[in-house]
Structures are given as structure tokens and as C-alpha cells.
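We give its fold:
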Amino acid sequence: MEKGVYHFTGIGGFGMSALAQMRALAGLPATGSDRDFDAGRNPETRAALEALGIRIFPQDGSGVTAAPAKVVASTAVESSNPDLARAAELGVPVIHRSELLAEHVNFSRAVAVAGTSGKSTVAAMIFEILDFAGLKPSIITGGALLSLKAKGLLGNAFAGGSGPLVVEADESDGTVARYRPALGVLLNITRDHKEVDELRGIFSAFAANCGEMIASADDPEAAAIKPAAGSFGRSATG
């Protein structure tokens, strides 16, 4: 990862705060802004981020200077946002949250958990098993793990060391197809953010990029994505 400052616009969101924490836990500089913080909302999240050394700015562009290597934003951030306007004015690159997550996945020994539902639960289970085995795993997820909250963290991110990185791979914006994990886990495919036909294409691309793939045999759509994959579930035969 680049050593310059990364500024996270909308840092209070679960996906953004996880990435900001990973950067801070790696000893790299991170700053952020969030409208909820400006309005006095979500003080617990702000305090947890600041405890890691992440400086929080008002979301008025003041946190974006020529110093940041990048500004990170999500789809929820409007193009008219003051931080993005300031970045354009200064020529600071803006990247999507999913691009940064893909960097973590593609340059780590990653386990990416995908599917319409159950991702946070299964990612947490995998992390806890690896941690119990002493493998020093890391995690980036959309849920809060109680074991991590007990450490004073938000619970959605942890940098464990040299072990595998477990990530929750969100399909809502289609960027899951950018991930190239060592192991992919596909739980299910049902209509949610997108129609099933579109999801088949997204998850097929995801499966093709995985070093190894495990799919749920209980879900016909997931099982059909990559028939040669290892499978799990009541109907699994191998």
C-alpha cells in the first residue's frame, strides 16, 4: 500500500471505516470526514477511529490537501461533495472504496466470502476459526465481531499479522468481479440488489478469478456457477 495520506470521505460508514482502520492498524496515515460526525451523530464510531490515530475533519473539503495520496469515496458520496470538489481542484486522485478493497484482496492471501446473504456471519466464523488455530488472520467485513469489539475496536476490521485476510465480498455494485482471492466461498445467489441473471454473470467472473472455489451445494444457483468447485451443504457429495 502507498505510504501517503488516504482521506476517507464518508468514513463513518461500515465499509469505509473498515478500510480506514486497516490502514491505521498497518501504521499508515489516514484521515476522514463524515456528515454524521458533523451533526454530532455516531460519536462512538468517531471515537474509535480517533483512538487509532485517524484524524477527523469536517466534510467541507478542509481535510483534502495536496498531501493525500488519494481520496477514497463510496457510491453513496455525491459528485458535488466538497471533499471531491477540493480533490479535483488540487488534482488529488479519487478512488472508489471497492478499488481499495480489491487491492487488499489481490495483494494478500485472501479468503473472499460472496453471495446474496450470510456473508458477514460466515466471514466471522472463518476468522474466528483461523484465529483459534493461531494463524493470525485479518478481516474486513460488514458486520461487527464481538471478539474485536472487546478489544476496543469497531469490530468490522482487524489486522492480525501474516495470516490470511478474510473479506466480505459485496456484489451490490458488481465490483466483486475485481477480486482475485486465493479462496472464494460462494454461499447463495438470490434476487436482491440485482436480478439473478445479472448476478450469475457477476459471480461467474468472481469464480473465474479465485485460486480455489467452494460453493454451497444447497443453493442450486451457487452450485451451478462452478460445478467443479468443492461444495458444502446437506446435498454435498464431495
